[in-house]
Structure formats: structure tokens, C-alpha cells
Here is the input.
Amino acid sequence: MTRPSNARRSRLIQALPKAELHLHIEGSLEPELMVALAARNGIDIPFASVEEVRRAYAFSNLQDFLDIYYQGMGVLRVERDFFDLTMAYLERANADTVRHVEIFFDPQGHTGRGIAFGTAIGGILRGLEEGKARFGISYRLIMCFLRHLDEESALATLAEAEPWLDRIDGVGLDSSERGHPPGKFARVFARARELGLKLVAHAGEEGPPGYVWEALDILKVDRIDHGNRALEDRRLVERIVAEKRTLTVCPLSNLKLCVIDAMGQSPVRHMLDLGIRVTINSDDPAYFGGYVNANFIAVAEALDLSEDQIATLAVNSFAGSFLPEAEKAEHIAAIEMIRNASA
Ligand code: HPA
Ligand SMILES: [Zn+2]
Here is the structure.
């Protein structure tokens, strides 16, 4: 089969409606906004210019990035900051024809430095509502627990979230993976499950396949974030396929955090070939160099993906979302029209 030109791929990627399922809102803080918020809030940051901030974004692993990520979110102080951050992301998502977002936020990254839970979530939710009104982008909000902290802190965060639970759709697990297996959070995930929340966890980004097993067996997650290293375990792959588990892969993130050495090593095509429901996401786009379409383009070009495979990735993003079945079906029908027109 002849493969499409890169220009054709870009046009298709731009046209396809997509959902983004793996996006840390604090990781969408662009250097320009960071510098502006630092000035607005009278905060000293260790960078003299936007260019200097960008130059600091050279990472050799996840922890390197996380150190800068937690430092960066220090400019977020008042509700308006969280609102502006969320709106800036939704404008970029809208420009990329993203129609639905399921975003993460890290409450402990804020409460741990004296910012009230309500300040962070209040601003983010106001942004999400405004984005829905202005762009028609639907949303879900997922509260992540920081896995380098203990389970007591996660349980306290879940308790703090109780007044907001009608506006929180799920919980997730992020931050430093190595040495912090999912099993460490068994009780807080069990409690979240009792509360009717959806469950996701980062697993198999740097951590071993055993962490993906734990996320499925102990935490009982609906979805795996990243999941790259699941491919090292044939039985795990069989299970992920049989249970139609969604993996939220983040190609530019993988490259910047040295999970892969070159985009040609991205597992996306292999996952598609195995029948895994893989999706494409931007993770922390301000730090990793691109939003959803940039991630689609990078993998599609490096892996020489067909138009059919690109359309399947868009279908997977809605199929793996927490939208009701009828809404998934509407989005997927729109994608199938585009797929058939380009066939
Ligand atoms: O890619 C990530 N992995 C783990 N924790 C994170 N927190 C923000 N981004 C990430
Ligand atoms: Zn992530």
C-alpha cells in the first residue's frame, strides 16, 4: 500500500475530531504565561527571559522534568491564574480540532505550597466551563495523587475533595514512578472506587510491566496512562487487548524524557498492530514541545502511518474516553465520514 505524503497526513490530522485523555493542566503552562504570571503575582523566578525558561527544558529522565514542573507551577497563586492556564490550553486544543478533553490536575502540588484546594479546582473548572461555552469542547476532570508522597496524603486529598466530588470524574496517579508502585495506593483507590469515581494511573512509563499489572489488579483502573513497557510482557498485552484497555501514549513526552531515543522507536504502530486501543496525547505540552496534533504528526511521519491508522487513533481517543456511549458514537461517526471520504 502506498503511504500518504506528510502534507496529506497533516491535513487529515487537522480535520479529524479528537479527544485528549492524558494532559496535565499544570504541564500546559507555556513559558510566556509563566513569566507573565510571575510578574503579575510578584514572584521571583530563576529565569531572566522566556528563552532562558525554554533552554532549561532539557531532560534526561522523568525526575529531571518533574523538578522543573513543580517549580514552574509555583507561579499559580490565585483562582484567575488557574483559569487563565486552563483557557490557554483549551484555545490550543480547539485549534487542533480537539472536541473533548479529560484533564489531570495535581492538587497536592498546590496545597503543599499553601494554595487552597478550592483555588486550584475553582479556576480550572471555571476555565473548563468557559471552554465548553466558547468552543463546544466537552470535558472530564481527573484529580491525580502524587505517588512520591505517602498514601495518607492521598487519602487526605480525597477527603478534601469531597465537597467537589460532583465535579470530579476520576482519580489518577502521577509523579515519580520508580520505587512507587501502584500497590502503595490500594486503599485510596478502593475508596475512590466506592465513591463512584473513574480510575486511571500512570504505569509502565519508566516502571516495569509489574506496575501495569498492579494498576489493573490492585487499583482496578479503567485506563493505563503511558503503558509503554507493557509491551515487554506478552501475557499483559493479551490481557490489555482482551479487556479493551485504553493506553494513553504520549509520543513527544516519551522522546523528551528519554523513554525512547528517537520517534521511530515510539510503540504506537506496534500497539496498533497488536490490536491495543492506543491513543495519542500531549502529556505536558508546554514542556515537551507540542500539543495533540504535533504529537499525531510526529508519530505518523516517523512510523509512516497510513490514513486508516491515523483515523483509528482518533476513533480510539473517543472509544477510550469516559463519555456516554451515545456521545462516543456521534464523534466516531464523524471520524468515519472523514475516513471514508479519504479512502
Ligand atoms: O509524564 C508524567 N509522568 C508522571 N508524572 C507526571 N506529572 C506530569 N507529567 C507526568
Ligand atoms: Zn502524564
Observations:
- The domain at 6-335 is CATH 3.20.20.140 (TIM Barrel).
- Residues 120 and 188 are 21 Å apart (CA to CA).
- The mean pLDDT is 97.
- The chain has 17 helices and eight strands.
